[in-house]
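Standup notes
- DV: blocked on the single-chain target, sequence here:
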Amino acid sequence: ASPVVVGSTVFMNGGGKLFALDAASGCAKWVYAGGLSRSSLTYGEIGGRNVIAYTAGRGEVHVVDARTGALVWKADGLPKAGFGTVRAPVVLY
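- DV (later): unblocked, structure below
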């Protein structure tokens, strides 16, 4: 998936991890191990907190604090039928 650039931070996922990298140096600001993902990242605000949201695994939805990399919220996004996957980007509403 394409990275997301916000200010001086590049957010990207790969190898089962979500990374926040300093845009100038490429050094990691933080790393979140959320599982393999092909999902595009969504940047937005929830409750006054800037977050990155994406899907991983077979349909888990992860919302991570964009400043610290701490998990804010995680939920199972699989359909009730119990099969299928979620790979589309998360929409914050």
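- Follow-up: The mean pLDDT is 89.
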